[in-house]
């Protein structure tokens, strides 16, 4: 560290950048941010990106997405693809940057540079389209991302090869790829397949605003309002969520209704992974944008994405999603309570695992890609006790579920 500090003191932007990275590894974030800024001001694009990331995620001080966007734009002008992908992430929220056609331009630029997260996001976009040429393009993009070390893209590619999605089924190629993945710590995914949802629009067009088109929803209960959307997610999106969550699973927790403190309770016996913003990429954010718009809200109103896994015998006993006053006071009370919930089933469950709403006598069976959107509050903002619901026990197999709790007002910084 002393040698790095001595070298950085000479004024070299590269040395300042290397020192900042070492300080991050040492968890000396305030110092790291200062040295990243010094290198960024000297015109060092990687330092501009890392300084922007620290401001974007609040690693040393308050979250500042507008400041982050300014530095990312400078790095983007220097031709750095990581800046374009991060700017895409910010713009998808529509808060710190406008959600406009530059999103497509930026993602396309990052794809051309073979930046892994952009390749993955573009592949999933084309994978939702039914045309053969879009499906072929999805496969090509997954192959490019996997070849550059993106493990999630490799998982999606292996599953497509195994099921003949967008290609001829090739069990041997899928098995070889899974052998490599498992050797590097990846876990097998639940076995299922889905046809593409069938996004409209011309083929081979990277138009991410497709995610904002309102889906066809079927209202299955009026009081409380519950709607179901089949084939909401593609097989790729379901697998994206599962593969991204697997390394981060831990026992699910429930908030104490008096203190608001989370703790493990028999009412909820699943395991889960919550996605901090630093864990997100453009593919994950695009899918979440789709989930919030299905509920009639925008992405910044959503809490962090949570992916849950229920093993045989596990369940979530009857509960309500709106938060008690103590919990609200501990977690951004300005955002209000949880107005709506969007859940998406991510796999085919062998038996059990339905979502029940006891008051209207409604039972929704899990199907991969199926979304359920329901209200937690009355129109005047009061908690609706009739929103009581439960995840019934899984009898055979496992159940994977994605959940977004959506607040009345803006919750996320961007």
Automatic annotation (TrEMBL):
The keyword Endoplasmic reticulum applies. Residues 301-408 form the Fe2OG dioxygenase domain. Its cofactor is L-ascorbate. This is Fe2OG dioxygenase domain-containing protein. Pfam families: 2OG-FeII_Oxy_3. It comes from the Bacteria. Gene3D superfamilies: q2cbj1_9rhob like domain (2.60.120.620), Tetratricopeptide repeat domain (1.25.40.10). Keywords: Dioxygenase, Endoplasmic reticulum, Glycoprotein, Iron, Metal-binding, Oxidoreductase, Vitamin C. The keyword Glycoprotein applies.
């Amino acid at each position: 560290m002393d040698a790095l500090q001595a070298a950085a003191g000479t004024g070299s932007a590269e040395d300042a950048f290397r020192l900042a990275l070492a300080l991050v590894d040492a968890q000396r974030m305030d110092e790291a941010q200062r040295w990243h800024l010094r290198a960024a001001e000297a015109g060092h694009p990687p330092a501009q990106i890392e300084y922007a990331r620290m401001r974007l995620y609040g690693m040393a001080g308050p979250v500042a997405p507008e400041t982050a966007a300014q530095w990312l734009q400078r790095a983007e002008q220097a031709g750095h693809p990581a800046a374009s992908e991060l700017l895409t992430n910010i713009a998808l929220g529509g808060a710190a940057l406008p959600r406009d056609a530059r999103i497509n331009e930026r993602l396309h630029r990052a794809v051309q540079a073979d930046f892994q997260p952009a390749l993955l996001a573009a592949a999933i976009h084309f994978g939702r389209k039914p045309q053969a040429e879009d499906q072929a393009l999805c496969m090509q993009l997954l192959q490019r991302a996997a070849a550059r070390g993106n493990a999630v893209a490799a998982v999606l590619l292996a599953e497509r090869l195994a099921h003949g999605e967008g290609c001829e089924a090739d069990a041997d190629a899928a098995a070889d790829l899974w052998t490599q993945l498992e050797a590097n710590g990846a876990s097998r995914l639940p076995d299922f397949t889905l046809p593409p949802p069938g996004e409209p629009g011309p083929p081979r067009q990277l138009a991410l605003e497709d995610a904002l088109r309102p889906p066809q929803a079927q209202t299955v209960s009026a009081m409380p309002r519950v709607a179901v959307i089949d084939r909401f997610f593609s097989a790729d999106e379901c697998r994206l969520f599962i593969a991204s969550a697997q390394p981060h699973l831990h026992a699910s927790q429930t908030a104490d209704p008096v203190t608001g403190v989370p703790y493990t309770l028999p009412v909820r016996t699943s395991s889960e992974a919550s996605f901090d913003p630093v864990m997100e990429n453009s593919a994950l954010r695009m899918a979440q944008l789709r989930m919030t718009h299905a509920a009639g809200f925008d992405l910044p109103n959503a809490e962090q994405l949570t992916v849950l896994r229920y093993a045989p015998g596990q369940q979530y006993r009857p509960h309500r999603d709106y938060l008690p006053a103590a919990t609200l006071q501990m977690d951004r009370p300005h955002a209000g309570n949880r107005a709506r919930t969007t859940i998406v089933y991510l796999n085919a469950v062998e038996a059990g695992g339905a979502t029940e709403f006891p008051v209207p006598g409604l039972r929704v069976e899990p199907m991969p890609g199926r979304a359920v959107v329901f209200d937690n509050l009355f129109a005047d903002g009061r908690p609706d006790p009739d929103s009581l619901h439960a995840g019934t026990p899984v009898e055979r197999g496992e159940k994977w579920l994605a959940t977004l709790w959506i607040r009345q007002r803006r919750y996320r910084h961007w």
